[in-house]
Amino acid sequence: MSKTHENSSEAKTATVVQARESLVLVRFDDQAAVKKNEVGYIHVGDERLKAEVLRIRGRTADMQVFEDTDGVRIGDRVEMTDEMLSATLGPGMLGRVFDGLQNPLHVLAEEYGFFLPRGATVPPLDMQRRWEFTPAVKVGSRVPPGGVLGTVPEGPFTHKILVPFSEPEPVTVTWIGEGTFTLEDPISRIESKGIERELTMVQHWPVRRPIPAPLLRRHYAERVFSQTPLTTGTRIIDTFFPIAIGGTGCIPGPFGAGKTVLQSTIARYSTVDIVVVVACGERAGEVVETITMYPETKDPRTGGTLMDRTIIICNTSSMPVAAREASIYMGVTLAEYYRQMGLNVLLIADSTSRWAQAMRETSGRMEEIPGEEAFPAYLDSSIKSVYERAGVIQCPDGEQGSLTMIGTVSPAGGNFEEPVTQSTLGTVKTFLGLSYDRAYKRFYPAIDPLVSWSRYLDQLAPWLSKNLDANWVHDVKRMQQLLQQGDSINQMMQVTGEEGITLEDYLIWQKSVLLDMAFLQQDAFDEVDSCMPRERQLESLRMIKQLIDRDYDFKNRDEARVFFTKVTGLYKNWNYSAPGSADYQRYKDEIEAAATGQLAK
């Protein structure tokens, strides 16, 4: 939609005066104004290295280079674009794998091979593909910024073509097309402030600026308080530590605790339309696994593959640090774009620790005053600025779209006291702490219920009471208290043995183990148990509540142990049974018999 930077770049240049790894100090040759986060290209022979302005001091500026800087010399020319680092937004992004600068990696590999040459770029979208455009407005219509001009089909969704978000006021449509168009063809002409111009299906947006910000400021959109939970199909999340649609959550955990498997499960079964995965600084092997697994994973929502409604932003640990830092913002911007169409979007960032480490490296090279563990002093505000872009938005056309954000954190040694985890904890409203001990015991998910929490449980209480059970929140808190009691008794038994506690305490511990083993644990590889609908979660919670609330009359610990072992086995088999099957009803009957004291010993 905008090609003005190609002309303006000729009028503003700079010269390299110092190079320090991925950071380059440049001096401007003229009096032209330079903006923070403006993009420029360093000319090294025939190569053009993309860079971004981070800091301006007088007539010099620090620029981070998104490529390897070998060969950059003092005196090299820098071509400024007068534009911020931006995302290209339009039809055709679903199902694609981009790097942190929105280069489509599959296209790059086809043109240049698997070892990408420095400075190679291709358009993010297929500009020659034709799309069937259906207008939604007529000539003479007044359409606000972010309003709908028309639609094109994109995979299982209807992709809305929107008026540029940067328009200051409603525009008048003077011509609207209908039929098939490429992304370079004009599909409409609009008039604003007496100036008429053509629009294509593509628009650009700076990645470090939230898309809805100007719409909210001018009251064309509205931020809505979320009162609906996100259903993930994972019992411990949906029941004990829920995340609201449009909310934020984090999954910290040590290496090998199951973060990637849990993320994939959430992406596959969550009640969202679009999934954006930002693989930021992860090992290449893990990223390759994600890229190959998603196209082979059947999507339970659409019947196609999970990749059909997924975008992957891929920046491995072997890629330049600067591009890794930008990848989070690129992913959030693409997610916000689909939210503006009234869709529910889930963004999974893996991991924000690598992203923070990239900031630390860049900050160190800029010789900024370091904060805790050498992270920049603005680490906390940077993390908050990313998570704050989540939320529910009332779009200009009246539809509501949401962006739910879940970030994983990889604290070194599983230390949750390190700065990135602590800053994230102060930002998100759901904390799903993974435990190495639980992962080692083959518990899945390895979410530790004793350290995890959710501030959404009370916020969503009206919805949960109305749609599930009037006492839902009260019952869940009671179950959480039982887990705490069971853990205290277990610690006591580690010192005194079973004989050192009363039979009453022993029963409390057995009930907490039953709750953990039968309700909190799931089998990620079982077709039925891997995802439990919310209605069945309600049924399951009621069943296990009956077992826990019952007064037992065991004569000794052995009798209690045999009973709870048998009930746990029945419960697990019920979890594996498909609804409506003979096993489903049989195991349910036996569990209910146990709850009423009728189970055969």
TrEMBL record:
InterPro entries per UniProt: ATP-synt_VA_C, ATP-synth_a_Xtn, ATPase_a/bsu_AS, ATPase_F1/V1/A1_a/bsu_N, ATPase_F1/V1/A1_a/bsu_nucl-bd, ATPase_F1/V1_b/a_C, P-loop_NTPase, V-ATPase_asu
Alphabetically ordered keywords of this record: ATP synthesis, ATP-binding, Hydrogen ion transport, Ion transport, Nucleotide-binding, Translocase, Transport
Name of the featured protein: V-type ATP synthase alpha chain
UniProt family annotation: Belongs to the ATPase alpha/beta chains family.
Boundaries of every ATPase F1/V1/A1 complex alpha/beta subunit nucleotide-binding domain copy: 233-454
Gene Ontology biological-process entries: proton motive force-driven plasma membrane ATP synthesis
Pfam families: ATP-synt_ab, ATP-synt_ab_N, ATP-synt_ab_Xtn, ATP-synt_VA_C
EC number: 7.1.2.2
